[in-house]
Amino acid sequence: MEKFDQLQQQPTSQKYITYFDSIEYDKYLLGKSYFDVKEFDRATFVLEKCKSAKCRFLRIYSKYLAGEKRKEEERKDIMGPLENEKSLNKEVQSLWEEMESWRKEEDLDGFLTYLYGLLVKQKNPHAKDLKDIFIESVCKYQYNWSAWLELGSCITTKDTLEEICLRLPDTFMTKFFRIYVTVELSGTPKSFKDLVDHDLKENFANNKFLQTQEAIMYYNNRDYDRAEVIFDEIIKSDPYRVDEMDVYSNILYVMERKIGKLSYLAHMCTYTDKYRSETMCVIAWTLMGHEYMELKNTHAAVISYKRAMPYYALYYYQHSSAIRPSDARMWTRLAALYEQTNAPTEATKAYTRSLSCTDIDVNSETQAIVKLASLYASLSTSIISSSSSSFSVNSNKEKAAQFYTKLLERQDM
User: Fold this and answer.
1) What is the extent of the structural domain holding 174?
2) What InterPro entries does its record include (predicted)?
């Protein structure tokens, strides 16, 4: 009776949540088991009429992920959203409407608020209240790092970061968040050291998150030697770590002399989890490194590589370019592999994507333009021979002419 009296004295929303949590616990466990094996539709079904915060979160999130899975399955290629804008999560609208009604009727907890923010972002990535929603989520529950990451994605300037930090709780999570966003905004070594205060050094002396952020900061500032040293220490103390190893592999590839170490890293990541996105990137950089070595080998080795490797490499570059869509080198190499495997249309798409990347250098940009001019000219010829429509022929001829014109303009500069 005493416990019942205490429950009655609680606010109505908290009282009902406690009550429903207890009577729906079995359904929650069943739904969670389905969720863990990625049977999202089954999890959604068994939790359909549940009212506890845990079950509602799991149901909405399961249905959202089921929609994400179907969206990915509808995509015919990995050229990205610029090439296939019609692939949408069809569950988002109905889920948003349901959660919108909840927000009007009650105060959602931190997890449901985070999920609501995801739905708003899917509907409109530039929604004005996105930052406010994720700030609300982390203030209600500060240990959901996914919510912090979503909040970080809304920040594009240091001034915005300073403004938002004033609205956040004074905890170590806010300090970690501030460090993460500063590194993402290409902070300098001095700005990084200023943020790692005495309390963080004392309480998180061997924290892997802080170590990787420091390494990434040096990487962003092109100090590859220091970044490599820190990553070496991380692997030594945590040999089966896969997080951020894609960045480490990029460092090793850029340093060129580290091909042996890059191969070892690829072996380690493949052994630990061969299907992780980071592993895909590591293997892609390793293949590029081996190609670099092969070019210094005999003619027979080069011929062997060209015959066998492209089909093996294509799989990894497809996934890596999807993971690192702003990396021009990934798209350029993927385009070259499409050429080698007789897929000229896909090659034009990949070269076009490489030109849209901000990190592309002048030589790579010129090479991509040359390739596009040549590919479109070849496509117009092959279309004529296959008796395709005159529209396709003219379209490819016009594109070829455009890229040849660009080349002439570059020569005149």
Assistant:
1) 170-221
2) APC8, TPR-like_helical_dom_sf, TPR_rpt
